C-alpha cells in the first residue's frame, strides 16, 4: 500500500467514517495516553496447526504456494514474517512474488503464461471485481468465511464481495486522512496543528516564514495526488456527492470538482511551499517524500507530508521517532465534513486449493494480523486484533478509531474506479492530477481532461 500499499476498482461505495472522523478529530494523535484495550487476537503458533484462539489449519507438508503483491521494502519484509508463521503452522512453503503496478496487468501476464500465483493481494475493490469478471478469482471457502465473519465488520466484508459472493479478505487497511509533520520544525516556527483548511494555510505560512518549505509531495506517484483530492472533495462536497463522483454518476466537470481543485491550488499553486517546486515534486516518489521530511534535523527539505498511517514504515527508515520527532494530525476540514478516506489490500485466491484456502483463512485471523501489527506501519480492519499489539500510542489511536468506525467509512475514490482511470501510472486521474500539479491555474482544462478520461474508462 501504497499505498496501502498503498490500489482496481469496483463501483461499490461503502459509508464513510463518521465515527472514524469524529474519533480522529477528537483524539490528539500527538499526545496519546496509554490504551487498556485488550481485545483478543494474540494467538501463538505451536507448529501443530492449532492456535490459542481456536484457529485450525491443515497440515500442508509438501505444498508450495505463491503470493503476489506490489509491496516492497519494510512492508514486504514484514509480510514475509506473517507468511513464515503460516509455513511454521502448516508445513507449506510460501514464496512471495513481487508484482508491478497495475497488478491486474501483472496477473494477466502471469495467467496468460500459465503460472498464476495462488493468492494475490489486490489493492483496490475494483481489482477484486476485475479479477472476478475475468474468471480469475475463486470464492472463499467455508473456513475462510467463518474466520472473516468472526473478525470483520459487515462493511469490510462487503467490499470484498462481488455480486453477493465473497472473494476478498481485507488483510490490510489504511487511514488515508493524516498529515505528518516534523515536530522540531513546528516548535521552532511556533506553528500549531490546524483543524481547518484555512488554519492549514496559516500554519504553512508560519513554517515558510521560519525558513522551512512547508510541504513534501510525492507527485511521481500519481496515487498520492488522488488522495489529496479525495480528502478535500469529501470534506467540501460531502459523502453523497463523493459517492456519485466515485461511480461517475456526476461528471468531473461538476462545480463541486471545480471547488475542490481550486482549493487544492491554494497549496499546489505556491511553488515555494512545495519541496523542489512542482517539477521537484513530480520527480519525488512517495517513500522519498516521507524520508525527506524527517531527515536533516530541524532543517529538512519540508516540514509536512500528507499520507496515511503507513507513512510510519518510511519514517522507520530515518532516525525520527513516531510520537516525538514525527507527529500527526487529521486532514483538516476544507468544508463541512471531517474527511476520512480508507484504503486497503484484499487477499484473493486465484488457484483454488486446500493450501490457498488455508492461507486466506489464516490472513483473516487475528493471529496473522497481530504479527504484522507488532512490526509497525500497518493497520488491520480485523476487530479482534488487540489494540495493544500496535507498537506505539499514535498507531494505537489510529487503529482504535478505525475499529470504532464499524461500517461507517468511505473507501478511496480512485480505488473504486476502473483501472484505466484510477489506477494506472501515466494515465487517467493519476496523470491528470500530475498535470494539474504542474499547472494548478488550469482548473477548467483539468476538469475537461478528467471527464474525458473517466467517460472512456467507465464506458459512459
UniProtKB/TrEMBL annotation:
Residues 1-33 form the signal peptide. Coiled coil: none annotated. Residues 42-52 have a biased composition (Gly residues). SUPFAM superfamilies: Periplasmic binding protein-like II. It comes from the Bacteria. Gene3D superfamilies: Periplasmic binding protein-like II. Residues 35-57 are annotated as: Disordered. The keyword Transport applies. Keywords: Signal, Transport. Transmembrane segments: none annotated. PANTHER family: ARABINOSE-BINDING PROTEIN-RELATED (PTHR43649), OSMOPROTECTIVE COMPOUNDS-BINDING PROTEIN GGTB (PTHR43649:SF29). Belongs to the bacterial solute-binding protein 1 family. This is Sugar ABC transporter substrate-binding protein. It comes from Streptomyces griseoruber.
Amino acid at each position: 500500500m501504497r499505498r496501502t500499499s498503498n490500489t482496481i476498482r469496483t463501483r461499490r461505495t461503502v459509508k464513510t467514517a463518521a465515527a472514524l472522523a469524529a474519533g480522529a478529530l477528537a483524539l490528539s494523535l500527538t499526545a496519546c495516553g496509554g490504551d487498556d484495550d485488550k481485545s483478543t487476537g494474540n494467538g501463538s503458533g505451536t507448529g501443530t496447526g492449532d492456535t490459542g484462539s481456536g484457529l485450525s489449519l491443515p497440515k500442508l507438508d509438501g505444498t508450495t504456494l505463491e503470493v503476489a503483491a506490489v509491496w516492497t521494502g519494510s512492508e514486504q519484509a514484514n509480510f514475509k514474517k506473517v507468511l513464515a508463521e503460516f509455513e511454521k503452522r502448516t508445513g507449506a512453503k510460501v514464496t512471495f512474488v513481487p508484482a508491478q503496478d497495475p497488478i491486474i496487468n501483472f496477473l494477466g501476464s502471469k495467467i496468460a503464461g500459465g503460472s498464476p500465483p495462488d493468492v494475490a493481494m489486490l489493492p483496490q475493490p475494483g481489482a477484486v471485481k476485475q479479477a472476478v469478471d475475468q474468471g480469475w478469482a475463486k470464492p472463499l471457502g467455508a473456513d475462510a468465511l467463518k474466520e472473516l465473519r468472526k473478525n470483520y465488520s459487515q462493511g469490510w466484508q462487503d467490499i470484498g464481495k462481488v455480486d453477493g459472493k465473497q472473494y476478498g479478505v481485507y488483510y490490510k487497511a489504511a487511514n488515508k486522512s493524516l498529515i505528518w509533520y516534523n515536530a522540531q520544525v513546528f516548535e521552532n516556527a511556533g506553528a500549531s496543528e490546524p483543524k481547518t483548511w484555512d488554519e492549514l494555510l496559516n500554519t504553512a505560512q508560519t513554517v515558510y516564514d521560519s525558513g522551512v518549505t512547508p510541504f513534501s509531495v510525492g507527485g511521481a506517484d500519481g496515487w498520492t495526488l488522488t488522495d489529496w483530492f479525495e480528502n478535500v472533495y469529501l470534506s467540501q462536497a460531502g459523502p453523497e456527492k463523493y459517492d456519485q463522483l466515485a461511480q461517475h454518476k456526476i461528471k468531473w466537470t461538476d462545480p463541486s470538482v471545480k471547488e475542490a481543485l481550486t482549493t487544492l491550488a491554494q497549496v499546489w499553486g505556491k511553488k515555494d511551499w512545495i519541496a523542489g517546486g512542482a517539477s521537484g515534486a513530480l520527480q519525488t516518489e512517495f517513500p522519498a517524500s516521507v524520508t525527506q521530511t524527517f531527515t536533516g534535523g530541524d532543517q529538512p527539505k519540508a516540514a509536512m507530508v500528507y499520507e496515511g498511517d503507513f507513512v510510519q514504515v518510511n519514517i522507520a527508515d530515518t532516525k525520527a521517532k513516531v510520537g516525538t520527532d514525527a507527529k500527526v494530525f487529521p486532514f483538516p476540514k476544507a468544508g463541512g465534513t471531517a474527511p476520512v478516506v480508507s484504503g486497503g489490500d484484499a487477499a484473493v485466491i486465484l488457484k483454488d486449493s486446500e493450501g490457498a484456502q488455508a492461507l486466506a483463512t489464516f490472513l483473516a485471523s487475528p493471529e496473522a494480523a497481530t504479527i504484522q501489527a507488532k512490526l509497525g506501519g500497518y493497520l488491520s480492519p480485523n476487530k479482534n486484533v488487540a489494540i495493544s499489539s500496535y507498537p506505539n500510542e499514535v498507531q494505537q489511536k489510529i487503529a482504535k478509531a478505525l475499529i470504532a468506525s464499524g461500517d461507517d467509512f468511505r473507501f478511496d475514490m480512485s480505488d473504486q474506479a476502473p483501472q484505466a482511470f484510477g489506477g494506472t501510472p501515466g494515465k487517467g486521474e493519476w496523470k491528470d492530477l500530475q498535470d494539474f500539479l504542474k499547472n494548478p491555474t488550469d482548473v477548467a482544462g483539468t476538469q475537461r481532461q478528467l471527464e474525458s478520461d473517466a467517460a472512456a474508462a467507465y464506458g459512459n
